[in-house]
Amino acid sequence: MAISIVICSSFRFYPDVLELQKQLEEAGIRTEIPVPNEFLHPKKPWLLRNKLIISQPELFEAFWRNMELHRHRILETDIVYVYGGREGYVGNGVCSEMGFAYGIKKYCSYEKPRTILSSSELADIAMRGFIEEIIPPENLIKRL
Description:
- With 144 residues, this protein is an alpha/beta fold.
- The chain has one domain: Rossmann fold.
- The chain has helices spanning 14-26, 57-76, 92-103, 125-128, 137-143, and strands spanning 4-9, 30-32, 79-83, 107-110, 133-134.
- The protein has a five-stranded parallel sheet with strand order 2-1-3-4-5, with helices on both faces.
- The radius of gyration is 15 Å and the shape is globular.
- The protein starts with a strand and ends with a helix.
- Mean pLDDT is 74; it is low at 112-121.
């Protein structure tokens, strides 16, 4: 049976995530990634297009359904891989996905930058506790 992986990442790293997905799939690893939607800003995909989404129930409901879809991807795959780019950034959405994955006892990995991480979201000990192993993207296929 082929192994499957879901990548959790901020949309600011979306081009990197697409490239990593391509490499993993070429190696025969089924790969799920977050999917952009109409709520994201077209030029800055890590921002919401309109902050009023939260105050409009029907838009918020659609936005929430997209988040739930990614949680379903976490449930359906074998491994959760958190990609934070070279600076090690993970936002609130990825933090919630890590907590969800940890809560259902999924294996979590985090892409560590090539430089020492001194001030980032993962400097918080509570976030570090979710991580089982650090595997840079260039070593991920060999490790799986």
